[in-house]
Amino acid sequence: GSELGNWALGHWTEEGFDLFENFPDLTSPLWAAEERQLVPHRFPGHHIPIPEHYLQEDAAVAVETRAIVAWMEKNPFVLGANLQGGEKLVSFPFDAARPHSETPAAPHPLDEDEDGERPEVHETPDHAVFRWLAISYASAHLTMTETFRGGCHTQDVTDAMGIVQGAKWRPRAGSMNDFSYLHTNCLELSIYLGCDKFPHESELQQEWENNKESLLTFMEQTHRGIKGLVTDQQGEPIANATIVVGGIKHSVRTAGNGDYWRILNPGEYRVSARAEGYNPSTKTCSVFYDIGATQCNFVLARSNWKRIREIMAMNGNRPIRRVVPGRPMTLRERLRLRQRL
């Protein structure tokens, strides 16, 4: 097929699934919780759990999607890209607009919806980082930023930069990019390699040359930001510790060996490491323009709260009655005290 063919050709699996949009919609519950001011105290703003109905055997979920979700949960990916065709640009999250926005059936420049109203576009807390990652690919591509002739099928929607936020261009819920950002540590983008979705064999070499340097530059961005280890005072790694960057309301977690990676733009950041049963630790970490992540390690001391919770659990999570000196204990109080001891 040529670029004049149907853009949707080959877009769905034989079972009728669009794999890219087959992931759990985590943006809608997040925004609903934000409106009720439940984030982050009652509802997490990161590593949002998968809804139970999505995990059921009879859920409308492709086997490929289930495999990808399991793969992403097993490996602590830092940066990801899904490669698509039929357009020539880089799209970054959020892909979903606010729930009242309707999802278009085909890609087109999204200035207004059918009712003449602009959809509400919600930027991620890592909007600046996503823009940098998208630009790193588009700027190294041989032709992606040459938009003077317009886009592939319509006028240019990227402001001559070759990048666009998904919700501004083609809003859709349940995308792989949004799921990856809200459920894992991974920052994921969609890279549309070229206008011709099915290039002829004779054109493949040029397509490779167009994208080769971009792919290498994009992969290098995993080394931009901070990285390190989170351990206790005995040097033992702490898994699932939360790394909080001041000013960015989105956190990552440490892997099984206590290591973490956090992609950040150049600047100075106040970074905290927090874990259940430990006192948090905060330090200043600087990110420089040169490629190479800044080492930023944390050592956490055990908190008394862990012992307090253990004592409360022994007491059935009921308040422990204070024994007043000089007042004789009742038989019931004496038995409870004996049990605790």
From TrEMBL:
One of its GO terms (biological process) is protein processing. Residues 97-123 are annotated as: Disordered. Residues 1-222 form the Peptidase M14 domain. One of its GO terms (cellular component) is extracellular space. Keywords: Glycoprotein. The keyword Glycoprotein applies. PROSITE patterns: PEPTIDASE_M14. It comes from the Eukaryota. Gene3D superfamilies: Carboxypeptidase-like, regulatory domain, Zn peptidases. It holds the Pfam family CarboxypepD_reg. GO terms for molecular function: DNA-binding transcription repressor activity, RNA polymerase II-specific; metallocarboxypeptidase activity; RNA polymerase II transcription regulatory region sequence-specific DNA binding; zinc ion binding. InterPro entries: CarboxyPept-like_regulatory, Peptidase_M14, Peptidase_M14_domain. Belongs to the peptidase M14 family. This is AEBP1 protein.
